[in-house]
Amino acid sequence: MSALQALPLLGQSYDELELWLTSLGEPAYRARQLHQWLYTRNLQSLQEVTVFSKRWREAHADVPVGRSKVLLKTPSRDGTVKYLLGLKDGETIEAVGIPTAKRLSVCVSSQVGCPMACTFCATGKSGFARNLEVHEILDQVLTVQADFGRRVTHIVFMGMGEPLLNLKNLYTTVLRLNQDLGISQRNITISTVGVKGRIQALAQYKLQTTLAVSLHAPNQQLRCQLIPTAAFYPIEALLAECQVYVELTGRRLTFEYTLLKNINDQQAHARELAHRVRGFQSHINLIPYNPISDADYQRPSPRQIQTFLQVLENQRIPASVRQTRGVEESSACGQLRRQTLPEQEFVPECS
Ligand code: SAH
């Protein structure tokens, strides 16, 4: 393996692939071929690239492509499919493919576990191990794309982890998704619970992605009860940073609000929320709580959810309720976690 090629191939730009191949004495057009196999053909190993000579492939057999292993595939009745992926160091992550007639979205993880430990989210309950590398995030998208046999059109960074704690890899991944997989930046949503200074840092990249901010409460006191890390980052400071983001990027943002029965779902909360976000170029996305095994929360009734929405609408605050997908197979928002597989469930490859 040459020094230039210590990193996995996945995650490298066209120019980087070209640099590597020409440094090995290959003609520049080889980069186009390798790029195509890598990003559109679900390449698992360099051995499969039959346009390269057998001798060349054997000589570079140790060059890693950077794909993970599908350990388990869990389809839901509504068409979503959850994938448990095994990483090189033995850690596991989950990703979800969410199809509609016109779209194929992938809910990707950005970390192994999550250090933010929001009280209603399964991911935080399983602890935190590390940030994901660029190739480990891209792999999730390529896995879903290959398995569904159709192009991925949308990405949501709403799987495991806090994406803004992995900002550099997040940025490179967005570039690769856009430039190499052809996914429009506008179809990529980055969801964050807020990390001091990081929303502004993201704004400096001047991406056209959509930012979703997990607010979940209209005031600091309630927010701290639900999100322990909010104690270090007052809601006023978070919203001020959001305002800077809107000014720097010219993009509207989304506020996510997970509705928890009798906790943050009362009409008074809705009124306070409306007051908080008034004047923002924003949209509120209400997420009915998805049950997880190790938390005591409950989902409000459909009527309570509608009432909450109605209060926001009466206050002329743009809002909608997120449609829940994959909830019975624990594939919905906040239900993903690090898992080890019971022996008998092990499926070596997914078909
Ligand atoms: N770390 C990111 C992504 C989390 S998942 C963030 O915090 O924004 C995407 C959304 O689902 C977040 O708004 C998250 O707070 C919410 N969520 C987490 N657990 C949930 C649950 N059990 N039910 C409903 N929404 C949940």
Write the layout of secondary structure elements.
Blueprint: H1 14-23, H2 29-40, H3 54-59, E1 69-75, E2 81-86, E3 92-99, E4 104-107, E5 111-113, H4 122-125, E6 128-131, H5 134-148, E7 154-157, H6 167-179, E8 188-192, H7 198-204, E9 210-214, H8 220-226, H9 235-249, E10 253-259, H10 267-277, E11 282-288, H11 302-314, E12 319-321
Parallel strand pairs: 4-7, 7-8, 8-9, 9-10, 10-11, 11-12
Antiparallel strand pairs: 1-2, 2-3, 3-4, 5-6
Helix pairs in contact: 1-2, 5-6, 7-9, 10-11
Residues 118, 120-121, 158, 162, 191-193, 214, 256, 258, 287, 289-290, 292, 333-334 line the site of S-adenosyl-L-homocysteine.
Give an overview of the whole structure:
This protein has 2 domains: 14-59, no CATH class; 69-329, Aldolase class I (TIM Barrel, Alpha-Beta Barrel). The protein contains 11 helices and 12 strands. The strands form 2 sheets. The chain has a 10-stranded mixed β-sheet, with helices on one face. 32% of the residues lie in helices and 18% in strands. Helix 1 crosses helix 2.
| Global geometry | elongated
| Rg for CA atoms | 21 Å
Largest sheet: 10 strands, mixed
Task: Give the SSE string.
Answer: HHHEEEEEHEHEHEHEHHEHEHE
Task: Offer a few descriptive terms.
single chain; 351 residues; TIM Barrel; 2 domains; ten-stranded mixed sheet; elongated; binds S-adenosyl-L-homocysteine
Give me a quick take on this structure.
This protein has 351 residues and is α/β, with parallel strands linked by helices.
